[in-house]
Request: fold
Amino acid sequence: MDPSVKEHLVRQQYRLVGESGAVKLCHWMRQKLIYGRPCYKEEFYGIQSHRCLQMTPAVNVCNYRCLFCWRFHGMTGFDQSGYPEPEELLEKCLAEQRLLVSGFKGDERCVPELWKEARSPNQVAISLSGEPTLYPELGEFIGLCKRKGMTTFLVTNGSVPKAIENLSTMPTQLYVTVAAPNEDLFKRLCVPQFPSAWSNLMKTLELLPSLSTRTVIRHTLVKDWNMGWEEDYARLDELADPIFIEPKGYVFVGDSRTRMTMDNMPSHASVREFSARLAKRLSLELLGEREDSRVVLIGDKNAKMRVRA
Reply:
């Protein structure tokens, strides 16, 4: 990893594992430990916010440069070597997580039982930064988590359909981000670094119905950029046929502040209105929402929302 990239990530409170792995505490980890407020994924899917390990096997490796992404964009490319082995990656991420939560023990607002549980994660969010499907042993890593009784949520930009198709173990839940309704807007907003990115995303969407895992399409909504076009989004969602759809508003945080403005943050009301129009076109229902996260959950009313390892 380039020393300047490493320095930047450390300043942002990432704990690094090898040349490409990293872990960082989620905002909702703090909220749960101090105030008892869970993240929306706990409400929607039943995971425990304070026992979630937010990590990545590819912190400095991504093949998009999405304008709305709050992550660091200082990657030097997306061909990488020197990835940590799955066992090293998981064990060192868990060790770093224990160090990161250690300071909460002395906070009188923190419930001691929650703090103890936070030291033993049972959920892995493979989503912190970078594109995780570029990690060559992703399936083996997910399998290792499963053998240890941990659920896994994998978030991908859908750029490497072969990597998803060839996973030796599927995650508990697979998110695919679809942040544009058409190729032109996709190229301008997601800024892919290779020419076949849109066609690869379409292949990933076509692949989803055949996968033996629970699937979610994430529509990251940026005001004045990609809101509207519900008919186009609906066609893409019909192609993917996911169990759930999550329209979620862009938030003006992190490095995205160098590329976006506060005005690009949609209100929760506008995210909900978009979601209602999209759900109607797909004959689905609004199953849940969280205003503080500007997110709505769309799906069939009979869909199973809770997860199991």
Notes: Strands lie at 15-17, 21-23, 52-56, 123-126, 151-156, 173-177, 214-221, 244-249, 285-290, 295-299. Residues 3-299 form a domain with the TIM Barrel fold (CATH 3.20.20.70). The radius of gyration is 18 Å.
